Amino acid sequence: xxxxxxxxxxxxxxxxxxxxxxxxxxxxxxxxxxxxxxxxxxxxxxxxxxxxxxxxxxxxxxxxxxxxxxxxxxxxxxxxxxxxxxxxxxxxxxxxxxxxxxxxxxxxxxxxxxxxxxxxxxxxxxxxxxxxxxxxxxxxxxxxxxxxxxxxxxxxxxxxxxxxxxxxxxxxxxxxxxxxxxxxxxxxxxxxxxxxxxxxxxxxxxxxxxxxxxxxxxxxxxxxxxxxxxxxxxxxxxxxxxxxxxxxxxxxxxxxxxxxxxxxxxxxxxxxxxxxxxxxxxxxxxxxxxxxxxxxxxxxxxxxxxxxxxxxxxxxxxxxxxxxxxxxxxxx
Length: 332
Ligand code: ATP
Ligand code: MG
Fold this sequence. Notes:
Layout: E1 3-8, H1 17-30, E2 35-40, H2 42-45, H3 52-69, E3 77-80, H4 86-95, H5 100-104, H6 107-113, H7 123-138, E4 143-145, H8 151-168, E5 176-178, H9 213-221, H10 239-252, H11 256-262, H12 267-294, H13 297-326
Parallel strand pairs: 1-2, 2-3, 4-5
The structure holds adenosine-5'-triphosphate and magnesium ion.
Residues 8-9, 11, 18-19, 22-23, 146-147, 149-150, 184-186, 195-200 line the site of adenosine-5'-triphosphate (ATP).
């Protein structure tokens, strides 16, 4: 079985629809066909300095949502990144192989650091893609199911793997991104040219997996649509309607042309109502399962310990090899 690895940050009280369609839904499918490792990447989350109690709470919420979405500890490995110390250790080795200019070209850093003053974003936010490379390479992942925003980071991961292999001998697998068609970039409901994001979307622009039906319905009904009244996909001129069509199509399995035909001549109202219902139908059982899982912290922590054990065994073996190849003196 090919190996997959992917991660999600505990940077909010809930995942959103983009995380679900762009990433987690693929993760659930891939646990059947792949040897799958999925982690809640809390080391990544501290690049923006969260409050410690909030980080701990959000890490549990993130893990609970992953299980609630259908990840099964018997079929895949779900763990918390900081439970496996080798992530940080390999990141340092890779940081030393990365050029400053190369790291400086990452567009996510440019976007995420923009809200800080000049030079005020953390060095961790700058080196984030290199830690991500470590996450992936530690497990020799063949594929990495992610949204389109992670494409550039995957390229860096491949470059670093290649560089390491060239300098120190064949060690790492070159991973390929597995980016889902149509839902690779779900956009913000209020700003349909920007990606829906946990940390930068406004509350009105984001559909949270753990949100109640009332607010979800309201947000879809108030989503920015475009001039005209035709429900047709047109990325250039109708990014808002196109985003909603993609969502509706992904959630119901109905091809977009079929949806366009169904809503012909009906205006946006009926269409939006149906989109809202599809979202609610998908989210409600996940929210209910998440609430149940969060009610038993011991059980949740036990499941995560099992994941950490399995992931740790793979990561330790990789790091042992890396230490030797790099030339670190073995500790006897
Ligand atoms: P943050 O704003 O804190 O970075 P995020 O919403 O970008 O949060 P991440 O935890 O960084 O979420 O990403 C988890 C996964 O979800 C990644 O694979 C990412 O590519 C995917 N993803 C995030 N946003 C979207 C989106 N709008 N559409 C499709 N996939 C997305
Ligand atoms: Mg992100």
